[in-house]
Write the structure tokens for this entry.
Amino acid sequence: MKQTAALLRLCAVALAMAGIQTAKADEVVKIGHAAPLTGEVAHLGKDEENGARLAVEEFNKKGLVIGGRKITLQLDAQDDAADPRTATQVAQKLVDDHVVAVVGHLNSGCSIPASRIYNEAGVLEISPASTNPQYTQQGFKSTYRLVATDAQQGPALAEYAQKVLHAKSVAIVDDSTAYGQGLANEFEKTAKAGGVTVVSHDATNDKATDFRAILTKIKGERPDAIMYGGEDATGGPFAKQASQLGLSMRVLAGDGVCTGKLPDLAGDAAKNVICSQPGMPVDQMKGGAAFQKAYEARFHQPIELYAPFAYDSVGIIVAAMKRADSTDPSKVLAAMSGSDYNGVIGDVRFDDKGDLREPVITLYDYKGGKKSTLSVQKM
């Protein structure tokens, strides 16, 4: 009996030691996420975060082994408030948190200044939403994005204005952000090259609520169409006030305006808006139907805009970790050049700058308060 008791104690010790060793073999790996979670465009930032969180949860459920160690992913979500200065502080915090990579930022005006911090730290940054061309033109090896750029989105809108709306003249207004101004400038270049007269290009800001002075001036200029570069928080009221002033021409806008929330912000004037969005419509994405079902089951709300792109961003990071067989940020970054990922949004491959090799732009309008697909253009 004494021998049996001693043997049981030894077994218990051995099992306890095995438990300790197993615990040591497990590793928590942080993936950063940065977007506005407060402020006027928080709904877009939260949508992006939800997409990343869903991916993290699914990988943890399936189980993940890197370098012979069981990995548990953790989403380190930070609020950059759509503010460039806050974005750099958030970027430094994520670096200090030793994240393996970052999904974000949402706004180009945040991604661009934050990208320098990630680059200096050797940390991969994949933006699911930033469209300003400058983001990937800084010579950094750490910047990637999953959406078409304004150099593709702006021309798509301008060509639609010219070829489909047969606009001979346009007025342009932007919100003075890196995103809104960048999109408006790309639109203007293509419009002028196509023989369209730009009667004016005015600037407002991303906190503005009253656009009547600019719109009254535009009314006197009598353009065939108006282009607005900005987010839905200002684009919706802009379109609504234009309609209230009797301006019935189409308002062209980019992905920041092209949301499910626009009809609430613009009211009946949403019917005057034509907007572009990088990527395919969710119902035409390769894995869109399954993703939409999983997203709505988890978060009990519809997809806003960028969730599929954030979801795939996490998948691409995990794929790079697997190729590197490491969770070391520098090794994961080095493995990114070999990305060839089959995700929800389709097949993803990058050029040497970190941009998509085969981007897509979709144009939408609003009918009965709902977004409706006009056309899908492969760039």
In short: The longest strand covers residues 69-79. The radius of gyration is 24 Å. Residues 2-25 form the longest helix (24 residues).
